[in-house]
Amino acid sequence: MGRLDGKVAFITGAARGQGRSHAVRLAEEGASIIAIDICQQMPTVFYPMATPGDLEETERLVKEVGGAILTSVGDVRNRADVQAAYDAGIQQFGKVDIVLPNAGIMPVLEPGDRPQAWHDAIDVMLTGVWHVLEVTVPGMIERGEGGCIVITSSAAGLTSIGLNTFPGQAGYSAAKHGVVGLMRLYSNQLARHSIRVNTVHPTGVNTPMVANAEYEAFVNAHPEVANDPAYKNPMPVELIESIDISNAIVFLASDEARYITGVTLPVDAGYNNR
């Protein structure tokens, strides 16, 4: 018997990385999955982004652990895409109990990066989260059975962790702080409906967003970043794994956390505890 038996989870950015891990881990606990990912490259993102093949692999892995899943290719910047994925999921599974606005990008890092990098960061990781909430929350309220929302923020959402002040990094930091404000607003407004809203705040995670040749080249070109103690985890680990965040989300989505709401939960190897 799983901790999430009979639940349905709506997950953005699910083609790989943390989103894939969440989909598989929640499926292991009995949840059915509605998964959406853009599955194409954005010009301001310096590393290769997920592909349709990656989303197919997420589907395969969820089914491999006995889960049910419906996938959609869509862009969280476009509310119509989010609505279409949600509507298809409702048609197949009948409801949504758990919402994980997880889609994220790391825009370009170098000097002279385009101002568009700011807009893309905000549009994906702040406006995109708002789109997901606006699409999914009304149905959760109407069902009257409560629910759980866990927004993926970052250690950058609790402190200053930006590598520089170029537009992409500024947008990333601003968006990750911004979703904390959304969480606090929605957690207050939805508490009377027994809908809990929290954020998780990972340190660096071993996913293609960070573990890629392009980011390695940036760090090698800027050893002051790699060697700065301000960017080191106090615990002896350079990057945590996606499963570490997935396990925290399973807890927050389960009945074990039925009265936990409005919380900023670090999963950060002590990064914010200095």
Structure notes:
Helices cover 43% and strands 14% of the residues. The protein has helices at residues 17-28, 52-64, 79-93, 116-143, 167-190, 213-221, 223-226, 242-253, and strands spanning 8-12, 32-37, 69-73, 98-100, 147-152, 195-202, 264-267. Helix 1 crosses helix 8, helix 3 (79-93) runs parallel beside helix 4 and helix 4 runs parallel beside helix 5 (167-190). The termini are far apart. The model has no long low-confidence stretch (mean pLDDT 93).
| Helix share, percent | 40-55%
Strand order of the largest sheet: 3-2-1-4-5-6-7
Number of helices, counting only DSSP H or I runs of 4 residues or more: 8
Q: Topology as H/E string?
A: EHEHEHEHEHEHHHE
Total strands: the figure is 7
Please state the CA-atom Rg, rounded to the nearest Å: 18 Å
What's the pLDDT, averaged over the residues?
93
- Biggest sheet record: 7 strands, parallel
Q: Flag low-confidence runs.
A: none
Please state the structural category: alpha/beta
Q: What is the CA-CA span between the terminal residues? A: 39 Å
How much beta, percentage-wise? Answer: 5-15%
General shape:
globular
